[in-house]
Specification:
Largest sheet: 6 strands, antiparallel, barrel
Number of domains: 1
Helix content: 10-25%
Order of helices and strands: HEEEEHEEEE
Shape: globular
CATH architecture: Beta Barrel
Strand order of the largest sheet: 1-4-5-8-7-6
Number of strands: 8
Radius of gyration: 16 Å
Strand content: 35-45%
Structural class: alpha+beta
CATH topology: Thrombin, subunit H
CATH class: Mainly Beta
Number of helices: 2
């Protein structure tokens, strides 16, 4: 049986092994006076004081090929962040040392035993 303390230990190890740092730029959508959706973000660049550990990998894999086809792109990024990170579809990530902002297109749902969240992202154009 997996105990909550075991899951906490696994989460700590997973986070320690994440080699990159990123800042989550939270998306907020409101409507302008013409009822058009307007999306703003909580920031626009990497912020060391507000960063979290992550692992970023480039490329389309068999697992996310369907997402790439639906989005019409061959440039996907898989970003793993610590479990319980507040991250949602449409948020952007600013990764330290990475020239582009990336937009979250999919977030895994590992349930109560997850040790990390896997996000499929596309580059902001």
């Amino acid at each position: 049986m997996v105990l909550p303390s075991d899951v906490a230990d696994l989460r700590d190890v997973q986070e320690m092994l994440m080699p990159n740092r990123c800042t989550v730029l939270t998306a907020t959508t409101t409507q302008d006076r013409f009822a058009n959706d307007v999306t703003t973000y909580s920031g626009s660049a990497y912020d060391a004081d507000d960063s979290i550990a992550c692992r970023i990998e480039a490329g389309v894999t068999l697992e996310n090929q369907t997402i790439a086809e639906r989005l019409g792109t061959a440039e996907l990024w898989t970003v793993t962040v610590p479990a319980l990170t507040a991250i949602a579809l449409g948020d952007r990530l600013a990764v330290l040392g990475f020239a582009k902002l990336i937009t979250v297109q999919s977030v895994s749902d590992g349930g109560s035993y997850e040790t990390g969240l896997v996000c499929i992202c596309t580059a902001v154009t």
